[in-house]
Design brief:
With 30 residues, the chain is mainly alpha-helical. The chain has one domain. The longest helix is centred in the middle third of the chain and has 27 residues. The radius of gyration is 13 Å and the shape is rod-shaped. Keywords: Membrane, Transmembrane, Transmembrane helix.
Length: 30
């Protein structure tokens, strides 16, 4: 595994966190 692979996985995990945070905010405003 190269540093670039780790960076891509980090961005992917960050995207998932953003989606979860957005979904949580939407759920709380309902």
């Amino acid at each position: 595994m190269t540093a670039l692979d780790l960076l891509m996985w980090a961005f992917r995990a960050f995207d998932v966190l953003w989606v979860l945070a957005a979904a949580w905010l939407v759920w709380n405003t309902l």
